[in-house]
Hints:
Layout: E1 22-28, H1 32-37, E2 41-43, E3 48-50, H2 58-61, E4 67-73, H3 74-77, H4 89-102, H5 124-136
Antiparallel strand pairs: 1-3, 1-4, 2-3
Amino acid sequence: PNTQKPYEGFCTSEADFNADTTVTYECKGTDSKACEEAGGSFDEEESVCDDLSPFSSEECDAIPKFTFTPSATCQEISFIASQIDCNDYLSSIYLPLVQSTCCGAPENYKDLCPGITSSDLITSNDVCIRCAAVMEG
């Protein structure tokens, strides 16, 4: 059985772990057309507009009749730490956001990607530069 405590997923300090703090949100509503027009994909079963940022309300707030709603706490997502792909673009964005919300100070962040510094991770700016280069042909 897994005997890992929730804080151990992302953090090194149990005392500083913010177990009950909301770390991700979802965009809830019922208008599938409005969701899709905003660039999301609508999950009818969950009444959620997916493919939007789970950390910032900006995209969701722009969709009429949708609400940015708490989705998961630090304790609830701690199990995904073992699934982090250190070479994945999403991990390079989500990991710092999760750790800054859940672990307190940076000295409490667990090194989930040994040997990879934050400067090695792909940033959203890198993606924008690559995307622009492709679009320019």
